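[Discussion] Sanity-checking designs against the backbone

I'm trying to build intuition for which residues belong where. Below is a C-alpha cell string of 155 positions. I'd appreciate it if someone posts a full sequence so I can compare it with mine line by line.
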C-alpha cells in the first residue's frame, strides 16, 4: 500500500470506481458531466464537496466553455483527492458507521445491523464468528484499535 501511495498510483479497483462513478452519473451519456453530475459522482466516491468547490473545479477544467467536464479531468481530480486521503481517518469513519451508539466498540448488534443494511443474510452464528476471530480481549466486541489492525492487515 505504501509503495503505491509514494509512486502516486491508484489501484486498479480505484480506477474502476472512478470510471463507474463517471459513467453512472453521466446521466445523458454525452461523455461529459455538468455541475450536478459532478457533485453526485464525487459524493458517490466519498467526497462531499460544497457548491463553491464543485463550481471552481468545473471552471478550472472547462476545456470548451460549456460548463462541462470530460472523464480525463474528472479522473485527474479524483486521483488527487484519493491520494490525499488519510487512511487512518477513513478507517475511523468506517468504524463509526458500525458503532452507531458511540460506545467505542462494535458489538454483535452493530454487526447484525450493518449486515442487514448491506442486504447480507447472515446468521448470528456467522456474525459472532467474525467477531470471535478478531476479539483477542474476550469481550465479544471489537474496539477501534482492533478494527484498525484488521483493516490495515496488522492482525
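Best answer:
Here's mine. Compare freely.
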Amino acid at each position: 500500500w505504501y509503495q503505491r501511495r509514494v509512486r502516486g498510483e491508484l489501484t486498479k479497483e480505484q480506477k474502476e470506481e472512478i470510471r463507474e462513478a463517471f459513467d453512472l452519473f453521466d446521466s445523458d451519456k454525452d461523455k461529459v458531466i455538468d455541475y450536478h453530475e459532478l457533485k453526485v459522482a464525487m459524493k458517490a466516491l466519498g467526497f462531499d464537496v460544497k457548491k463553491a468547490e464543485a463550481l471552481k473545479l468545473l471552471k478550472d477544467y472547462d476545456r470548451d466553455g460549456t460548463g462541462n467536464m470530460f472523464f480525463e479531468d474528472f479522473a485527474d481530480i479524483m486521483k488527487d483527492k484519493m491520494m490525499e486521503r488519510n487512511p487512518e481517518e477513513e478507517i475511523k469513519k468506517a468504524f463509526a458507521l458500525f458503532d452507531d451508539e458511540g460506545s467505542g466498540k462494535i458489538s454483535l448488534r452493530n454487526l447484525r445491523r450493518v449486515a442487514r443494511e448491506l442486504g447480507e443474510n447472515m446468521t448470528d452464528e456467522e456474525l459472532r464468528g467474525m467477531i470471535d476471530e478478531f476479539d483477542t480481549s474476550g469481550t465479544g466486541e471489537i474496539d477501534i484499535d482492533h478494527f484498525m489492525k484488521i483493516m490495515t492487515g496488522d492482525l
